[in-house]
């Protein structure tokens, strides 16, 4: 079974190479070529590698937040049950209960900040990873432009219609896979200044 799968994969590679070669040859006389950037991101080995690693980092971040989220939920449900039939004045008159409610509110506020920090770190991680991807993509695009003799390369999202003969996405994918099979994806950490800005933004929102 393994040999069959390997053979099938080899045929697929040969077929894809043939399919790629034809549009490039046809596009050589065209001043404009098009590329499906979304396909390059989604189907390239580097793009898939980034997506997988970002998912792993996102899961890790979620696992870090889950214990506190569960603890807050349990504490909130307990407080809600204990104060369900109490007025605000009665809660305020019970010093121990008031102190617990205030501590819960502060804890919930801090958790909200922690979630914002985590989301910002994940976004920064994603930006850094795709920046590496596009840095490697640029020389690939320049190589394809040189090979085709094109003067302009457009993304398919910028075109109303284009012939398959001028679509060089397949060639870009093949070259990109060879140039960048994997991408280093490192979780980005927020600086103290970035954390302070988020805290100030939350305070401003609360005041509005």
Notable traits:
single chain, 208 residues, mainly alpha, two-stranded parallel ribbon, 7 helices, elongated, disordered N terminus
What radius of gyration results from the CA coordinates? 27 Å
Structural class designation: mainly alpha
Biggest beta sheet summary = 2 strands, parallel
Strand content: under 5%
- Percent in helix: over 70%
> Roughly what is the average pLDDT, rounded to an integer?
86
Order of helices and strands: HEHHHHEHH
The count of helical stretches stands at 7
Oligomer: single chain
Summed up, the domain count is 1
Distance between the termini: 65 Å
Entry summary:
This is OmpH family outer membrane protein. The chain is mostly helical.
List the helices and strands and how they pair.
Blueprint: H1 2-27, E1 32-35, H2 37-43, H3 45-83, H4 88-93, H5 95-148, E2 152-155, H6 169-179, H7 192-207
Parallel strand pairs: 1-2
Helix pairs in contact: 1-6, 2-3, 2-6, 3-5, 5-6
């Amino acid at each position: 079974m393994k040999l069959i799968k390997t053979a099938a994969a080899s045929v697929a590679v040969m077929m894809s190479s043939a399919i790629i070669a034809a549009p490039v040859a046809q596009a050589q006389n065209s001043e404009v070529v098009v590329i499906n950037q979304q396909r390059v991101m989604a189907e390239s080995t580097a793009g898939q590698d980034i997506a997988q690693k970002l998912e792993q980092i996102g899961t890790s971040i979620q696992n870090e937040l889950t214990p506190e989220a569960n603890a807050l939920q349990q504490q909130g449900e307990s407080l809600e049950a204990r104060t369900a039939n109490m007025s605000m004045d009665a809660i305020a008159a019970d010093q121990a209960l008031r102190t617990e409610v205030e501590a819960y509110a502060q804890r919930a506020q801090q958790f909200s900040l922690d979630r914002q920090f985590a989301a910002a770190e994940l976004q920064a991680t994603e930006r850094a990873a795709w920046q590496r991807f596009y840095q490697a993509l640029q020389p690939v695009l320049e190589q394809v432009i040189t090979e085709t003799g094109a003067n302009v390369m457009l993304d398919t999202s910028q075109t109303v219609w284009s012939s398959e003969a001028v679509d060089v996405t397949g060639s870009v994918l093949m070259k990109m896979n060879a140039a960048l099979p994997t991408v280093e994806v490192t979780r980005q950490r927020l600086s103290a200044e970035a954390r302070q800005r988020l805290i100030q933004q939350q305070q401003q929102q609360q005041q509005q």
